[in-house]
Design goal:
By secondary structure, the protein is of the alpha/beta class. 39% of the residues lie in helices and 15% in strands. Belongs to the aldo/keto reductase family.
């Protein structure tokens, strides 16, 4: 596997689109100056991927930050990779088409780089996927995918889908390695992407990670994010603090050994901090 060399390094999705291995997530960051400042700082520092969602309620702020950052850093729109997601309440065919238009108006974009079905709400996601496939075929989205889909959700979707999802964004960290799901996605050329890669801070006193971090002269967060990349998983840690945005991205000057990777892999306990996709009905 080719290991990402820098913040601009990309993986190639099964439709040929290049997606950055590393990005900034803005989950639960409220609209306003803090959000705009964080996104702009990340882009100035070298981030090229920003991940938002309709339910986060901050697409307009992300859009403003993107517009300002492009101008201030002399970048082109195609230099950035922007992701958003359709929420459960809009998982119908017409509803998804309307939700996408709302998202694009808030972001102020003509084309979205990646659009995801946010959760596999039973009986709803196939109609949404049909709408998303049409938006993709019309050239309004460069890549399409899902989020929080387990193997059986993917199998069900793919029975009727014209297009296999290009990405599956799921909770993924050393306590939840989802090895069977990861293997399934690899078999079907679906790029796995991690949300909550740092387990909302719950791993920052883990003795194994502490020992490896000490040996490498890195923070535990940096060790985990590097582990993501070396496992072939795209990652989008969230932060609004400039020093943390920079620290999270400073993971391209070292490598974890195969022994260190295995020690981290062994921390798995199938433990979630987010909802179980099979029991999430919002």
């Amino acid at each position: 596997m080719t290991i990402a060399q820098n913040l601009q390094s990309t993986t190639t999705l099964h439709n040929g689109v290049h997606m950055p291995w590393f990005g900034l997530g803005v989950f639960k960051v409220e609209e306003g100056a803090e959000l705009i400042t964080a996104v702009k700082h990340a882009i100035k520092y070298g981030y090229r991927s920003i991940d938002t969602a309709a339910v986060y309620g901050n697409e307009a702020g992300v859009g403003q930050a993107i517009a300002e950052a492009l101008q201030e850093n002399n970048l082109k729109r195609e230099d950035l990779f922007i992701t958003s997601k359709v929420w459960n309440a809009d998982l119908g065919y017409e509803e998804t088409l309307a939700a996408f238009d709302t998202t694009m108006n808030k972001l102020g974009l003509e084309v979205l780089d990646l659009y995801l079905v946010h959760w596999p709400k039973a009986g709803k996601y196939k109609a949404a996927w049909k709408a998303i496939e049409e938006l993709y075929q019309a050239g309004r989205i460069r890549a399409i995918g899902v989020s929080n889909f387990q193997i059986h959700h993917l199998q069900d979707l793919m029975q009727d889908a014209t297009i296999v999802p290009m990405v599956n964004q799921v909770e993924y960290h050393p306590r939840l390695t989802q090895t069977k799901l990861k293997a399934f996605c690899e078999e079907h050329n679906i790029q796995l992407e991690a949300w909550s890669p740092l387990m909302q801070g719950q791993l920052l006193d883990n003795p194994v990670l502490t020992e490896i971090a000490s040996a490498k002269g890195k923070s535990i967060a940096q060790i985990i994010l590097r582990w993501d990349l070396q496992n072939g998983v795209v990652t989008i840690p969230k932060s609004t603090k400039a020093h943390r945005i920079e620290e999270n991205a400073s993971i391209f000057d070292f490598e974890l050994s195969s022994e260190e990777m295995e020690r981290i892999n062994a921390l798995n306990e199938d433990q979630r901090v987010g909802p179980d996709p099979d029991n999430f009905n919002f």
